[in-house]
């Protein structure tokens, strides 16, 4: 099974991706399932609309799509209420945070109530990393170390600018999984596999920002042993989502 651990549906001023668009791309790349998150205004401020969109997509295609919620920590009590609704009523098993679009630093005190509620609700917490100064991987490392009971995903593994921090620092954070989309080259993914461990790597595309086929090609360049490739492309994501009850 191949699972794309990070994709989007919705609209921004620059791009739109419908459920049908994504399903066609999944089919063309022979990918079985995708985790979908809000994008654009629904990620930044219209969180309820985005969460409803993710839930509707998941209900319509339960065998192909798994929705992650989002809330903006600046909404404070409203964010906590919306997160609880998204998890307990809509059934979304994860939380997507984007420090840059939502306007906070990863390890700022502002985000702590949302992280704590997400942990109480038992969901995976995906955090965009790789953009200075708000979204550095070492900031996520600090947050994950503060909450060892949490389950965090480092989106983009530090991206194009801060990928060097991950192999050196993240071996000690066994509650952080590394998602491969937009990482700058295959050799970096290989280094993280060696230092952090194959069991903590998740294939992702960030579609429509990148293409699923091109992100799969990057992993293919590594010529991994079949059992390791199966972990990275889907086994780890399946186990992580199963651990939070995503397959109920």
Descriptive notes:
With about 250 residues, the protein is α/β, with parallel strands linked by helices. The chain has a single domain (about 5-245), classed as Metal-dependent hydrolases (TIM Barrel, Alpha-Beta Barrel). The protein contains twelve helices and ten strands. It has helices at about 20-30, 40-45, 45-60, 75-90, 100, 110-120, 135-145, 160, 165-170, 185-195, 210-220, 225-245, and strands at about 5-10, 10, 15, 35, 65-70, 95, 125-130, 150-155, 175-180, 200. An eight-stranded parallel β-sheet has the order 1-4-5-6-7-8-9-10, with helices on both faces. The protein has a two-stranded antiparallel sheet with strand order 2-3. A hairpin with a 4-residue loop joins β2 and β3. α4 (about 75-90) runs parallel beside α6. It is globular, with a radius of gyration of 16 Å. The two termini are about 20 Å apart. The model has no long low-confidence stretch (mean pLDDT about 95).
Biggest sheet, in brief? 8 strands, parallel
CATH architecture: Alpha-Beta Barrel
Strand fraction equals 15-25%
Instruction: Identify low-pLDDT runs.
Output: none
The geometry reads as: globular
Give the averaged pLDDT, no decimals.
97
Task: Kindly report the spatial arrangement of strands forming the biggest sheet.
Answer: 1-4-5-6-7-8-9-10
What is the element string, with H for helices and E for strands? EEEHEHHEHEHHEHEHHEHEHH
Which properties best describe this structure?
single chain, 248 residues, alpha/beta, TIM Barrel, two-stranded antiparallel sheet, globular
């Amino acid at each position: 099974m191949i699972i794309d651990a990070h994709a989007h549906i919705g609209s921004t001023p620059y791009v739109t991706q419908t459920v049908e668009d994504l399903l066609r791309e999944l089919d063309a790349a022979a990918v079985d399932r995708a985790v979908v998150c809000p994008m654009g205004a629904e990620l930044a401020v219209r969180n309820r609309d985005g969460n409803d969109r993710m839930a509707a997509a998941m209900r319509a295609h339960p065998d192909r799509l798994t929705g992650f919620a989002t809330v903006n920590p600046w909404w404070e009590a409203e964010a906590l209420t919306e997160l609880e609704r998204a998890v307990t009523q809509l059934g979304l098993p994860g939380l997507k945070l984007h420090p840059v679009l939502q306007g906070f630093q990863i390890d700022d005190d502002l985000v702590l109530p949302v992280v704590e509620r997400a942990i109480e609700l038992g969901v995976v917490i995906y955090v965009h990393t790789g953009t200075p100064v708000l979204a550095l991987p070492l900031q996520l490392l600090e947050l994950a170390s503060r909450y060892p009971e949490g389950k965090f995903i480092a989106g983009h593994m530090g991206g194009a600018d801060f990928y060097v921090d991950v192999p050196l620092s993240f071996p000690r954070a066994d509650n952080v999984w590394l998602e491969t989309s937009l990482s700058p080259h295959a050799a970096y993914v290989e280094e993280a596999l060696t230092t952090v461990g194959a069991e903590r790597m998740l294939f992702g595309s960030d579609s429509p920002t990148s293409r699923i086929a091109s992100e799969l090609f990057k992993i293919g360049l590594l010529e991994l042993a079949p059992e390791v490739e199966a972990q990275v492309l889907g086994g780890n994501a399946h186990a992580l989502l199963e651990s939070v009850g995503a397959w109920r």
